[in-house]
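[Discussion] Sanity-checking designs against the backbone

I'm trying to build intuition for which residues belong where. Below is a structure token string of 742 positions. I'd appreciate it if someone posts a full sequence so I can compare it with mine line by line.
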């Protein structure tokens, strides 16, 4: 997630992102910056303060199935599909280097994006890049429209080099006119080749990477003609089936980034036909809105409206943007287009919003999009796009059940002084794309992240904290709200542990606690093993004393290592943690810092290192209370939460004292055993079974009635057909999981 810009910066905390971040916005006046184009790539990516590599989801704005996506830097963090020797690229030059690049697996080339130090210099210094750029020139002349001549590898290698040099210039060295001349010759040859416009699945990923390379090399001005041609050529009927939609999408990155290149705006002023190409692209493809490729239309509208920042172009852009508003509405299928234009107008031409019809755009979008209002409890209100009653109940049970768990961990004595954040708004968008597009337009935040908590000033009367999140569309048909419990922890932690607002808590380094604790509670409460944290524990990258200095930036350090540091301190040095929390609650940031860096200092470093070894060996495959976690079964399919199935779970079950949560299960003939288990949550639920009808305390043939929610019933040789289980609330319970195994 990303630190918000301008108005929201002091009040925001965010959650682990679902996917790699995009690019930074151009330098602009203060205020919430309009979002970059979908898939805005690596060059110019600032060190985001809330980004995370805790990635368990597809790219939020790339709706293709994984097998349809061209390779990109996003894949570089994974292992190569085939053995890949970095020395093949760092220790060779000239034709020998080119030969090894063209013979390499694409995933191997992808892995080179992460090179640093001497390896980065060996692979990507200017002489190497110049050699590869001329090799691209030579190969592009006979480009057949697919990767049979390894053009893909050459383009991707060049992208990796520019990426490494952008982030690690001291390692790689400077790039000058020699490389510029070479890369222009390579791109000229590629875009001038006979098959570059082939509408085929073989050409699509290579063309997309080459367009992205335009931006990587900062040749945005020189290849504006390529941008226009792709915008004008695109036809959804023929391009989408061939995967070519994702070859045109990078043109929006070239435009977005172009504003950071000296002379770009002047070039568009001299030949503004690219604006007509953008307008025509959006208008022709308006019917794609509401489908998988509607994001292209959003990007087109976004990039057209961005040119409003150039006062010389405003007479040209204004009527085009106004027409796009007229084609759309702040609700329904065309809402992305409307939001894109409204966002740009609000940022660059707000004084003339009446001309476009986008004044009070935030209110218009809220009324049109966030139509579900539901009260979970006196302190929690849910606002959503599309949640049904069952989903609302599930989400509310998860939230309300977390309170008791949170308080049992932090052992607080109530809200910190001067905290008036007695209620929380939970705003749930229907998908990651809805969040990225609509939350940005409604709340003026940077949304290339996994969700965000906006705390505000808790001492101010009438302040309304809220957090923004979204449904995990990749988990469907199961229902999941991404980072729901992480974000809710930020609210509880801010209210009961951290005095003052977000800025106050950042007076000294507290990121290790703020984000690490949100991860710890989220995983522990849900009884889910943090596999990512366990994996990095084996690497022994950081000392505990160093983690106390964590700042927003490195994603693994903030979230996975933050989780490990918090878990270690809570489980191994609870007394120290209680003393630190006492300081946090009083706003004594310097006092807490002294405890961490002087009183504790390095004294626990050796023990922490030993603990990491145990953690990586299995000791951390437990919940936060030390209870071994069971293998996670998938959520049962279907919207009827009473329906169980073979080897699945129903999560976040709740019932008030004296009432029941009922379940039914269809048993296939010949089944030898049915096992139903309940676990987690708060309160006390007893499990009952009936083979013939709904199970009750006075109408059952078996039951399990322990002192908490840990109940198990094993039925041998059950009858074929429907059987019934019920969880009776001996004491009101919530957040319970019910699993069925056949």
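Best answer:
Here's mine. Compare freely.
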């Amino acid at each position: 997630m990303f630190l918000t810009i301008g108005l929201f910066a002091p009040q925001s905390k965010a959650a682990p992102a679902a996917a790699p971040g995009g690019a930074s916005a151009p330098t602009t006046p203060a205020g919430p910056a309009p979002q970059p184009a979908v898939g805005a790539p690596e060059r110019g990516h600032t060190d985001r303060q809330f980004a995370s590599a805790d990635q368990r989801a597809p790219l939020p704005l790339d709706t293709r199935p994984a097998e349809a996506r061209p390779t990109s830097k996003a894949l570089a963090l994974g292992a190569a599909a085939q053995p890949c020797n970095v020395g093949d690229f760092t220790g060779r030059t000239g034709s020998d280097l080119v030969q090894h690049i063209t013979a390499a697996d694409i995933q191997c080339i992808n892995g080179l994006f992460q090179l640093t130090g001497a390896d980065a210099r060996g692979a990507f210094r200017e002489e190497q890049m110049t050699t590869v750029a001329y090799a691209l020139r030579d190969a592009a002349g006979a480009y057949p429209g697919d990767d049979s001549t390894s053009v893909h590898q050459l383009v991707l290698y060049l992208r990796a080099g520019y990426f490494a040099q952008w982030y690690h210039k001291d390692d790689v060295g400077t790039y000058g006119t020699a490389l510029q001349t070479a890369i222009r010759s390579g791109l000229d040859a590629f875009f001038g080749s006979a098959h570059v416009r082939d509408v085929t699945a073989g050409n699509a990923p290579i063309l997309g990477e080459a367009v992205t390379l335009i931006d990587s090399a900062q040749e945005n001005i020189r290849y504006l003609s390529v941008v226009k041609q792709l915008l004008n050529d695109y036809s959804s009927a023929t391009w989408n089936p061939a995967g070519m939609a994702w070859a045109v999408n990078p043109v929006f990155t070239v435009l977005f980034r172009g504003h950071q290149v000296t002379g770009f705006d002047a070039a568009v002023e001299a030949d503004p036909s690219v604006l007509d190409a953008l307008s025509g692209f959006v208008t022709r493809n308006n019917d794609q809105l509401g489908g998988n490729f509607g994001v292209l239309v959003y990007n087109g509208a976004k990039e057209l409206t961005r040119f409003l920042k150039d006062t010389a172009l405003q007479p040209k852009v204004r009527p085009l943007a106004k027409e796009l508003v007229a084609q759309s509405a702040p609700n329904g299928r065309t809402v992305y287009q409307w939001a894109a234009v409204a966002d740009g107008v609000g940022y660059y031409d707000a004084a003339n919003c009446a001309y476009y019809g986008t004044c009070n755009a935030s209110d218009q979008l809220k009324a049109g999009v966030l139509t579900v209002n539901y009260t979970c409890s006196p302190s929690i209100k849910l606002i959503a796009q599309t949640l049904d009653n069952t989903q609302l109940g599930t989400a509310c049970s998860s939230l309300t059940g977390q309170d008791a768990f949170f308080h049992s961990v932090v052992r607080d004595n109530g809200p910190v002084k001067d905290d008036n954040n007695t209620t929380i708004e939970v705003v749930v968008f229907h998908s990651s794309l809805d969040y990225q597009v609509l939350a940005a337009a409604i709340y003026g935040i940077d949304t290339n992240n996994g969700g965000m908590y906006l705390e505000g000033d808790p001492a101010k009367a009438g302040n309304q904290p809220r957090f923004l999140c979204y449904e995990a569309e990749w988990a469907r048909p199961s229902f999941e709200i991404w980072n729901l419990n992480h974000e809710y922890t930020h609210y509880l932690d801010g209210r009961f542990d951290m005095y003052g607002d977000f800025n106050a808590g950042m007076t000294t380094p507290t990121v290790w606690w703020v984000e690490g604790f949100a991860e710890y509670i989220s995983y522990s409460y849900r009884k889910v093993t943090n596999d990512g944290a366990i994996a990095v524990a084996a690497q022994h990258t950081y000392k505990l004393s160093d983690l106390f200095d964590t700042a927003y930036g490195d994603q693994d350090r903030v979230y996975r290592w933050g989780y490990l540091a918090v878990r270690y301190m809570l489980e191994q040095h609870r007394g120290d943690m209680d003393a630190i929390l006492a300081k946090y609650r009083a706003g004594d940031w310097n006092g807490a810092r002294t405890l961490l860096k002087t009183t504790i200092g390095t004294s626990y470093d050796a023990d922490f290192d030993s603990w990491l070894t145990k953690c990586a060996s299995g000791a951390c495959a437990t919940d936060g209370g030390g209870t071994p976690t069971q293998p996670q079964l998938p959520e049962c399919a279907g919207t009827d939460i009473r329906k169980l199935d073979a080897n699945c779970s129903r999560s976040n079950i709740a019932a008030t004292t004296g009432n029941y949560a009922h379940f039914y299960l269809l048993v296939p003939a010949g089944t030898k055993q049915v096992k139903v288990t309940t676990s987690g949550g708060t309160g006390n639920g007893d499990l009952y079974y009936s083979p013939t009808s709904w199970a009750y305390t006075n109408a059952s043939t078996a039951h399990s009635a322990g002192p908490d929610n840990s109940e198990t019933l094993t039925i041998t040789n059950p009858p074929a057909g429907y059987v019934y289980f019920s969880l009776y609330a001996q004491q009101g319970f919530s957040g319970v999981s019910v699993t069925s195994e056949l």
